[in-house]
């Protein structure tokens, strides 16, 4: 007779001393782990609920401006530095970690319209309503020294925006026309005009650095090549675009914020229709900025909210609002992909988390592991109706809630009418026009 | 692999019409070839490597400088000692190991699934395949092996007595064979806790005791002064339920009555669903009731309308409760439905006992007709039927698939009841009273038998799962670990709505909902956004857009579409044909015997 009976030595399964961690032998045999799908689903549901519980996106408010914040600029080298310009011509430099203003200077008379930090991070440019472009040192002047610009250029017309080249001593301004300036000269090296209208925003392409795009008030978005004397092409839409931002990773895409409550992501090569229409705002969208990963962007709107959109999805994944925040004029995504900064009418700059439920600070390895696992579970089960409902629910201020409902009703009515017209007319005479094609009037080359 | 030599040897086409080439046949063949290539990948890789080496040699002859460079290169590829790796590539995994970890259900991909979803599914399947392979590799590191019992030549294992086994094994294991002589309050019902450390005994005449049976430490002992029908541990060893004469009671390990649940009356049998925290009870009034023990609420009460319910078991794979009835039927129940999910007629007389194995594949039943039957409950078809001279009153299945059946006062243990036809029991043991309750101890080679004269703990080598999972059921867990486990388990308690026959249903693509939503969308939009766009030929220059050529291009596209349709229908037809042929073949085999007239058939 040969016999063997299971006999475990407890020493192999129990920790030796109290200072050790407990031993946890694993056996991944699926027969020992029944209901794996349902259990994972339950875990995903819990993770989604916890996500909503911990969603506290507001970090801090920076106050100190004496008028509405009109523009902001990220520092190119320092994560903790932020520059902001207000409607009374004041520029403030902020230390974000300490939540305090480290420097204030009266840059312009009237609005500060645009601001940009030079790629080296040692100086910054501002343009204002007083028709000047000023270059400032980044360093705070020493005791007894006066705040004076390094350079002042007097222009002929009002400037409404500016952007600096990625690596050359060249910058671009917009106003009545788009000008390209050499930092050493007091007159533009090139100016572009197409039509008579003014421009509201100009941006350099971050990868193809000689390319620019600008939003004109004749409802068009114009593309330029700095090396050529004439603009490349433009797309005319049904409503005016307020600003635009290039995708930093796939720099042939740009997103423009429009007066018709939508944002449009275009492929620079095919302007005849946008890649995606991003809808959700209930008032004009004023500013847009991409995350450094190029996967998401944030938009600021006149409806007093900030929304975050994934780059390839038509609706926002997140909406930020507070009782006191008024029309949001400018918005920036921080260079470490963790924070969002919004400047609004009521003189405050607000610091938000980019990921509302994310824990700030250093994570312990097990914590990180758990959060990664939860993230994966949420991804896996996000189509399930119950999880989807919880994950998508956002509380909205009453006015916005009702307005969005109204917009939905209006849209549905329009669609119903169109459907009825189509039903009662000759087949093919009322073609189906997709949402993407609706908003583009024409492309001019 | 198909080589020209094989083909000539195999068949000669002389005198036969050549079979026309069909592309679908070719497709099938390709699929097969690929599978074979997978097997033969190793040698071909070696061949490739050899070729590479040859090439390298040729080059080395050419220049000295290049040689030096190459040497450096090869040094990187080889080990530090300069020898090449004798076992290149990842280590092979044995097939049955991989099969053990294979998930049975692959996501069905129907036509309406979009491209994006298809990508997601294929990516997740890839990931899970990788995980399965890794865990199959990890299987090698499991520390314990299962027990076994082998007789000498012409010695039946069923003749080996428990005393002999207990003498032959080590002292601690030998101590696991013991008898408790409790003749006063018997016969006894038995239950082991999920980790297998704790034993609960419930005597018919009111004696309830819980014991840490390995250290033989008595945790509590009470007499409820009422008849006890069944006892059951709840999720941990801190609480247990006792079905008494009138009502259901819950006690803790000190024997203190925690709850008396008057909603549950005349309970005869109980089952605890550990992942759902549900206590399912079957009563004499033919009610099947579910109690959520985490919140203390009744989840469902189903009137089965089938009389007294005293045969009950659960399917550990999908948490479906099986009930046996007097008319020989077995019914399957979930708390979400007022009617039985399935009714199967299993026996000619009444059903006496049911057991379901832990993978949820097989169900074993015994009936008044003295038969023991094995069913496949995925297809609800009988696999085996045995005749036991005395019939069996109690059945229990172990983690490793051993079946114990009690006939009167004899406990018999069978091995491989579903895969082979068994003629002899694996083990047998006579106890001192009629057997009332049987339960295999999880993670141990022990069978607990409750009978009229007390309790017997039997040694059954090869019954228990040798390697437990520390995060699921850890027999060696400390109090702290148990608390943590309890919190985790409660957090991932599965809702009773998710109980269904197929536990993987939640992971499948819900095509019905998608189609419904799509229809709604079409209704709202007035057109089908997913409809295939009509082909409009591009305008081409240099006279290539003449009406004729445009028409030709259109036709080409139309043909392409048609070809797909034809391919599909042909494949369907082939499949049906194949099935028909199979059926015929089977029928021919079944009809079997040749008749005398068959010789005239061509």
Structure description:
The complex is a heterodimer of chains A (445) and B (602). Chain A is of the alpha+beta class. Chain A has a domain at 58-140 and 147-353: YVTN repeat-like/Quinoprotein amine dehydrogenase (Methylamine Dehydrogenase, Chain H, 7 Propeller), CATH 2.130.10.10. Helix content of chain A is 16%, strand content 36%. Chain A has helices spanning 36-53, 365-380, 385-392, 398-423, 435-438, and strands spanning 2-4, 58-63, 69-74, 81-86, 90-95, 100-106, 112-117, 123-128, 132-137, 151-154, 161-164, 170-174, 178-182, 190-192, 199-204, 211-216, 220-225, 233-237, 241-246, 253-258, 263-267, 276-278, 285-290, 296-301, 306-310, 318-320, 328-333, 339-344, 348-353, 440-444. Chain A has a 5-stranded antiparallel β-sheet with strand order 15-16-17-18-30. A 4-stranded antiparallel β-sheet of chain A has the order 2-29-28-27, with no helix packed on it. Chain A has a 4-stranded antiparallel β-sheet with strand order 3-4-5-6, with no helix packed on it. In chain A, helix 1 (36-53) packs across helix 2 (365-380) and helix 1 (36-53) runs parallel beside helix 3 (385-392). Chain A is globular. In chain B, helix 3 (41-62) runs antiparallel to helix 4 (64-77) and helix 5 (95-101) crosses helix 6. Chain B is globular and about 105 Å long. Mean pLDDT of chain B is 85; it is low at 1-15 and 30-48. In chain B, strand 16 and strand 17 form a beta hairpin. Chain B has 602 residues and is an alpha+beta fold. Chain B has a 4-stranded antiparallel β-sheet. A 4-stranded antiparallel β-sheet of chain B has the order 3-4-5-6, with no helix packed on it. A 4-stranded antiparallel β-sheet of chain B has the order 7-8-9-10, with no helix packed on it. At the A-B interface, strand 1, helix 1 and helix 4 of A face helix 6, strand 1, helix 7 and helix 9 of B. Strand 1 of chain A pairs antiparallel with strand 1 (148-150) of chain B, so a sheet runs across the interface. Chain A: It comes from Labrus bergylta (ballan wrasse).
